[in-house]
Amino acid sequence: MKLDQETFQKWKSWSDKIKDDLMQLIDYKQIHDYFIIIVNANLDHVKLNKGKKFCDFVRKCYAVQTAVGIRRHMKSDKKSISLMRLLEQIKKCSRQFTYDFYTQCFPVDGGEWQKATFRNFTDDEKVFSEQKIEADIESLKKIAKTVENLVDQRVAHLDKRGYSEDVTYQDIDNSLDVFNKIACKYLALLTGHGYITLKPEVQYNWKSIFTVPLDIRKFES
Question: In angstroms, rounded to a whole number, what is the distance separating the alpha carbons of residues 6 and 154?
Fold first, then answer.
């Protein structure tokens, strides 16, 4: 695989799609996290009004949506745009990925942020380290394995062998946190913009829904 400006621009276009998809998953996480805070703060009310069924439904929807999203970014076939496929292609080109090439993509204009970004991927500040890219790939594989198995054996279809692993909501959250961290690292490389997190800042008060009562009787009369 040849590393040139065309390849770099392809990766850059992929990174936009990867960012948008992961941002949505992380947005779902922050909504789910707040939902759990509200439920726990009103647990007596939830129990009194037989709210367990609805709360379980919300939690399972979040878990399935996130698990499928994580599985989506582990796919690396030719038809997929995913975080895993992006990293695998960068790894294949690692020996061609020099600092000189990077400054051709982002010419130095005084600040030399390019050097600080490049250091995350190199041992000698001259060329990418294949081992560093592989370490990120292995981190994704390790954290996502349990969640992937859940999707493959329970969500996408019912595996006749059954499914014995105990996947927790914390496992799903931890997987998403690792994807967030690694994605930010590569987005900074490909876009020139620093990312600490992909957690979106919602520009309106979406939490206000929890401040007013909802009365189903209005629709059942």
Answer: 40
As a whole number of angstroms, the distance between CA 176 and CA 167 comes to: 14
**Burial of residue 194 (number of CB atoms within 10 Å: 0-12, 13-18, 19+):** exposed
pLDDT reported for residue 111: 64
Look-up: residue for tokens 């059942």?
A: 220
Q: Per the structure block, which two tokens stand in for 36? A: 């759990």
pLDDT of residue 110: 67
